[in-house]
From TrEMBL:
Presence of keyword Hydrolase: yes
GO molecular function annotations of the record: hydrolase activity
Family matches, as Pfam families: DUF402
Keyword terms, alphabetized: Hydrolase
Name of the protein in question: DUF402 domain-containing protein
Domain DUF402: 56-155
Keyword Hydrolase listed: yes
SUPFAM superfamilies in UniProt: FomD-like (SSF159234)
Taxonomic source organism: Actinacidiphila yanglinensis
């Protein structure tokens, strides 16, 4: 049985690398807040110097992300707060389970996303067209199936007990 790597130490620096289709989309510095060997939680400021307006939410300089990654789940949940600390909502990336090496978290984006507003009133499935166009279902049907099941699970939890119940 393989041994599990030692958890990352809270309050230490980490790097998050988000990869999509084999290419790095973004890399940013974060601070480890929690790691039990399965779930890793980091905090990081919005990584771009500009505003990204999705229509249903704006990510902007000064926003703080508390990001939860699992070594055994096919998603990451990012809790988004504005500069004053008010919760904007949760942005969920459907990903392969996170790979952690040294203090680097490698998260492979599988195109599907879910947005849940702070009040839980808006639960939006995102980028299903991109997922279809990616061809993952043909290249790796097992991964595609895991991705769809993860999105379905997150939506069910968001509409039921709320995403905070997973954290």
């Amino acid at each position: 049985m393989p041994t599990r790597p030692a958890p990352l130490t809270p309050e230490t620096p980490a790097v998050v690398r988000l990869v999509k289709a084999g290419r790095e989309k973004v890399r940013y510095d974060a601070t480890v807040r929690y790691d039990d060997g399965v779930r890793v939680t980091v905090t990081a400021p919005w990584s771009l110097p500009t505003v990204r307006d999705f229509g249903f939410v704006r990510f902007e300089p000064g926003d703080l992300f508390t990001e939860h990654y699992w070594r055994d789940r096919w998603y990451a949940i990012k809790e988004v707060h504005d500069p004053a600390g008010a919760l904007k909502g949760w942005y969920c990336d459907i990903t392969r389970p996170v790979a952690v090496e040294d203090a680097t978290l490698l998260s492979e984006d599988l195109d599907l996303d879910l947005w849940v507003s702070a009040d839980g009133g808006d639960v939006l499935r995102l980028d299903e067209d991109e997922f279809e166009a990616s061809g993952l279902a043909a290249r790796d049907p097992d991964a595609a199936g895991a991705a769809v099941r993860a999105l379905d699970e997150l939506e069910r939890v968001a509409r039921g007990d709320g995403l905070a119940s997973l954290l």
